[in-house]
Each structure stands twice: as C-alpha cells, then as structure tokens.
Amino acid sequence: MPSRHSIRALALASAAWSGALAAPAFAQDATPPQAAAQDDAGTIVVTARRREETLVSVPIAVSAFSGAQLERGGAIDITEIANVTPNTTLEASRGTNSTLTAFIRGVGQQDPVSGFEQGVGIYLDDVYLNRPQGALLDIYDVERIEVLRGPQGTLYGRNTIGGAVKYVTKMLPQDFALKLKGTYGSYDQADGIVSVSAPLGDIVRVGGAFARLSRGGFGRNLTTGQDNYNKDIWAGRATFEMGGYGEPVLVRITGDYSKDKSNPRGGHRLIPGQFSGAPVLDDVFDTRGGLRDPRQQVKSYGLSMNVTAELNDVFTLKSISAWRKDDSASPIDFDALPAVDVDVPAYYRNEQLSQEVQLQVDAGPLKGMIGFYYLDASADTQFDTRIFTTLNGLTAFTQADVDTETYAIFGDFTYDFSPQFSVSAGGRYTWDKRKADILRQNYLGGGSPVFGGAGLPFGAPSTDFRGDATYKKFTPRVSVSYKPTPDHNIYASYSKGFKGGGFDPRGVGTNAPDLNGDGIRQDSEVASFLSFRPEEVDSYEVGYKGNLMDGALYVALAGFYADYKDVQIPGSVACTVTGGTPPRPIPSFCGVVSNAGKARFKGLEFESNARLGRDMMASGDRLNLQTAIGYIDAQYREYITNIGGVPTDVAAFRRVQNTPKWTASGTLSYQAPVGDGSIYAGTTLSWRSKTYQFEIPNPYIDQKGYALWDASIVYTAPNDRWSLGLHGKNILDKEYKTSGYTFVAANPVTGAIVNNAAGFPTPSLGREGTLTAFYGNPRQVFVTGTVKF
C-alpha cells in the first residue's frame, strides 16, 4: 500500500500541474532554461535569491560551479567543492558512505540520527532534503552547484542557519541527445553514465540519466574479508518536460532513484585494544570490525514537479511539489574489532512531503517574491548499542520516531532607487511542530529482537516518552547595495537564522532530575530533560564584488560577524544503568544534548578569477588562476555543561568542530585550441588548517593542517563530439582524518584524556577503548571518456 506521504504527494502534484496548465499564457518572452555558472566571471548567473542574477549583482557570499567546470576537474561527488570554497566543510559522516556532514562558517550538524537536523540546507532542484541520509550526491548530469554562505532563512527556511548548497540538474535539450561517459581508474574504479533525451513534439521532451558507479576498497576488513571504503551504486533520474524555450509555461517532472550497496565503512583504531591487546593496523584504510548485520544498504528516491508560469510581464507563478523517501541499514562497529565491545546495528527511515508556491514580481525597479512553504516529514530510527564484554552482554535498544510539520510564509523584495543604489528587505515566519516517540529498552544476553538478537528484556524501559513541542520564529533579512558601475557592487547585509529545537532520541528518561523535589519523575520533567531549544544566529556581512580590467579579473571579498545563541550540542557518552542479580551499575551508552550557550564567529572570505594571459602560445589560448581564501575566528563565549550536578562554563576548553581557521585553494588552468578541438590542463592546490572533530579537543582524532593536490588534462574533439581526460586526486597521497568516534575517559572540564597504567587512554565504554578514525580518499588516478550523439 502507498504511504500517506506518497498519496498526498501525488494529489498535490496533480493540483499544481493542473493549476499551471490553466494559467493564462500572457507572457511575451520565453522562459529561459536555468542558467549555468559560466567560466567567464562576467557572465556567471546564480539563483541565490530564487531569481536569476549575475554573481556580481547578488549581495550574498556565494560560490558557483558549472557542470562543465566540475566535469573538466574530474569531480566525483559533492564533497569535492568544499576544497575550493571558503569556510566550508562537506564530508561523508563517520561510519557511513552516503550521509552528508556539512558545515559553513562554523555552523552545521554532525549527528545524523533523528531528532537532530543539519544547519546547512541541501537542495536538489530547489527541493529541500530534510535529512542527511542519501544527501552525499554524486556528480552527474549536473547544471551547476551553488554554495550560499551565511543564514538563508528568509528564502530557504529554517535549518539554513549556516548556509545552503544547491544542486541543480540539467534541463533537457530541444533536440535528440545521447551522451555516454565512462571512467576507469585506480582501485578498480569503473563508472558508466548514460544521458539521453528526445522530443515528443514541439513542446514536450523526455529524458533520463542513468549511472553505475563502482570502486574497489581503499583497504580491507581483516575480519570479514570485505573491501573497506568501496563503492557500489546504481542511480538514475528520469525527466518529463513540457514548455519552456519560448513558451510561457514550463512543467518539469523528475523522478530519481539510487541504491548504494557499498560495504560498511569501518574505522581505523588509533590505540591498541586495551583488553585484547590487538595492535594498531599499519594501513589506515584497514579495519577489523566484526559486525555484519544488518546488511549495509541505502536506498533513496523521490518525485518532484517544478511548474513555472509567466502570468504576464510582471508576475510569474512557481510551484515546487516533492515527495522523497530513503531507507538505510547500517552496521556500525564503533570499536573496530571482532569482539562485540561497542557495536551499533541501525536502521534509518525517512520520508518527506513538501509544497512551495512562489509569486515572483518583476516590475521595473521592484523585484522579488512572496511565497508559502509546507513540509511534513518523518524520521524513524532504530538501533542497538551492544556491549557484550560485560554481564553476558548488554544491549541498549532505541527506537525514535520524530515527526516534523512546518508551515512558513515569506517575502523578499529589492527596490532600485537608482541604477546605483538598491535596498532589499525580506522576512519569513516559520511555524515548526516536532513530535517525538522515543523508546529505550535494555536487553541482557544478546541483541534486541529487531536486529535478530536473542536478548531478554531487562527491567522497565529506561525511556518511554511521547511528547511534542512547537516553535515559532520570524527571521528577517535586509541588505543595501551600491553599484558605482554595473561591474562593481558594494553591499552590507543583516540576516537572522533559526534552527528548530527537538528531543534527544538517545536520552535516558530515567536519568531526568526531579526538578520539583516531589520524588516522582513526571512526564514534564522527562520532556524537559530530553528536549533542546532552537538555536539562532544574527549575522552581519559587508562585501565587494567586481569585474575589473575589462572582465579579465573577478574579485569577491566578504567580511562577516555572527552571534550564535543556544548552540545545539548533541553527543553520546558512557553512562551506567542499574540491573542484574543482585542489582549493580552496568556500563551503557547515553545521549547527552545541550544548548551550550553562546558563540561568536567573525571572518573574511576572498575569491577571484584572473585571466593571467591569452594568445600566448596559440591564438585563442588562455591562462587562468582561480583562488579562494577563507579565515574564521570561531569561539564559544559560553558553554554550560552539567558536571556533578553543577552547571559549569567550560567555554575556555571547547572548540568549534569541523571549522578550520584557514581554508585556501588555487586553481591554475590553461586552455588552448588544438586544430578544431581544444585542450584543457588544470591543477588545484587546496589547504586547510587544523580541524577539531568534536567540541572537546582530542589529539588522536583532530587533524592538523594539510594540503591536497589535484590535476587534470582533457582533450575535447571538434564540435564537442567526444572528449578524453586524465585526472589525479590527492596526487601526493596525503593521509588525513575526516571524522571519528571516541569513548575514552577525559577530564569533564578540560577534556584532557585520562591515560591508564599502560599509557593509553582509559576506556569509558566497553573494555577495548573506542578511539577510531575515518580518512579522506587516498591518491586516485583515472581516465574519463565521453561520446555525444
């Protein structure tokens, strides 16, 4: 039977489509296809304000990458653009293959469980992806990717408190087109992508893109024999389009599906086993985790309909209807050893239905839009936390069902008082309701029945909570722009970001304090203990964008200052539960979430695209240098944590995670005609300073500064009929950590790790000591070939 989300999605889509087709065809001009970011800085077009504008004109710090640019550079997935974008981190979440961790300007979310939502909005063709599972998008059939830095709450809604990443796919061409692309490289990388489209008449087109993406592992699981860090993905996208290209109405219906059957990604232990004595492995991509159930698999799919109707020369109506679903099965072996010391089999099931309606206005000096947004989403999570090395095996089973319902109305307008001076103002009012149903049950002697375990229920549930909360917020934005000429823009802006609160799905309700001292743990006290407040940020930005030297140089400079309040800090720690015969404390796992208090971020960002020369060695050749530099001073001003029942400010000992102080990159490229074809050669050097993986510094997991070097050379035949490229990633084979797990004893104030008599960190959960790391990709070399018909 179809779910209630899918039924409502089809109903909404049908209504939106019917309404668009009934719209009067008054427009005189064509509806242009979405413009791609171009290589010439003067013609870069983005939709950061939900309308097409040149990059110079938009008063927002935004980086744009065209599909052609990404293809020439051999980009594999969306995480690669973080290397060349200031103050941005995009990476695979720890222990996963396709869950995205995103941070922009110090704001993000590392924990992918239900109840916590990312602080960076991810958009696929203007559809917001409510959960990070399946959001690590592979790059194929892409028109452009935009990275918007700073709060985007007015136009993009809650949970864009740090910024937004927009993945825009290509529109179908008007004529028949067929493109074949193949890739083969190191670690048995073998990718195949087929893109095809065909007209069914003057205004109707159908097409699709289908991808098979595979790679052997960078390492091995020495216990199971499986490849580690391998890739096994099938993906496809089918599109129906009607109108556009001169018609006043454009209807675009897209369905996509991906299935990731890659093996579980196992971590690398950084310390020997403290009970078994298992040594640290030589190869950081090798692991020894023994957990194999459930079988690793991620499926994600969705249906969207984007309808644009030009009502007349002033008004354009746009509707975005979408339904999405993803299911993940993940065996996560925290301790990375064969023994069941800290093992977590998990299921994640997410579904969402969204509808957005915009009325866009273009009335001479006044441009902008008003709109309405609705989201109905569910995030259901089930997982065991298994510690079988004590008391014949203890399992803490958690089932958390978190539903979100959101309504918002918004508007944003720009008025040009003169060709030089304009003011933009907008706001969004959000109504956000969160419902949570959380069950935590302990089992002895084995895992929970959900994951095929034979454990027996142990006592009453330590959490059996059902509750809801509603959050309401108005988020304004205002900016002023001064353009001495059309090629220069000096701007200043203020914006507020908002991310809703919620309930910790891993919290232990029986640990809730007796707030009124009546000796009874009331539902309201449990709700207060499990809940966390919304977080907010007030961001101020000044900037300059300009095309200089007759278009030979594009420069963007931005300075920002942000006050971050009620920062949500989710985490998990070792704790104890009482049980056994006779009753005694037993080590277990507990979620701990808090609103840390206050943080302050300030920084600078610089981007440029310079043509260093042309017609140097051949007529029509060009030498370019693109640079991106980011600096951020990110500090907690207040970080309140409960230590021994006493609220304590530990801000002096905490760091902002996944936020290096410096990011920098430079791409030197040369293009030249070769006969009737052309050749491109480019090389990128990127650098990131020290990165803290968690708020508490950890010398084992934290990554010191490092540089990556990539290079590509691509030949394109006349008329772009075929191309052949050679690409190298991480050419110097730099070894660097991207994330990790830690369950070792530490000083609760300073975070300093407590060593045992052997000089290694003392385990706080399990007997082996969980201190594992995950690493970025090693050196990869591959060739690509494309043929177009």
Gap from first CA to last CA? 41 Å
Bulk shape: globular
The proportion of residues forming helix, as a percent range, comes to under 10%
Low confidence ranges: 4-42
- The tally of beta strands, per DSSP, is 43
**Main sheet properties:** 22 strands, antiparallel, barrel
How much beta, percentage-wise? over 45%
The structure class reads mainly beta
Count of DSSP-assigned helices: 4
Radius of gyration: 26 Å
- What is the mean pLDDT? 89
Please give a structural write-up:
With 789 residues, the chain is mainly beta. The strands form eight sheets. The protein has a 22-stranded antiparallel barrel. Strands 3-9-10-7-8 form a five-stranded mixed sheet. A hairpin with a 4-residue loop joins strand 30 (535-548) and strand 31. 52% of the residues are buried. The model is unreliable at 4-42 (pLDDT under 50).
Q: Which key features would you list for this structure?
A:
5-stranded mixed beta sheet; 5% helix; mainly beta; globular; 22-stranded antiparallel barrel; 789 residues
Mind sketching the topology for me?
Blueprint: H1 4-22, E1 45-46, E2 53-54, E3 62-66, H2 67-72, E4 88-92, E5 100-104, E6 107-109, E7 120-124, E8 127-128, E9 142-149, H3 153-156, E10 163-169, E11 177-185, E12 189-199, E13 204-215, E14 219-220, E15 227-228, E16 231-243, E17 249-260, E18 268-269, E19 297-310, E20 315-333, E21 343-363, E22 366-387, E23 394-416, E24 421-444, E25 456-457, E26 463-482, E27 488-499, E28 502-503, H4 523-530, E29 531-532, E30 535-548, E31 553-565, E32 568-579, E33 584-595, E34 597-614, E35 622-643, E36 646-649, E37 662-674, E38 677-688, E39 706-716, E40 722-729, E41 737-743, E42 770-775, E43 780-788
Parallel strand pairs: 7-10
Antiparallel strand pairs: 1-2, 3-9, 4-5, 5-6, 7-8, 9-10, 11-12, 11-43, 12-13, 13-16, 14-15, 16-17, 17-19, 18-42, 19-20, 20-21, 21-22, 22-23, 23-24, 24-25, 24-26, 26-27, 27-30, 28-29, 30-31, 31-34, 32-33, 34-35, 35-36, 35-37, 37-38, 38-39, 39-40, 40-43, 41-42
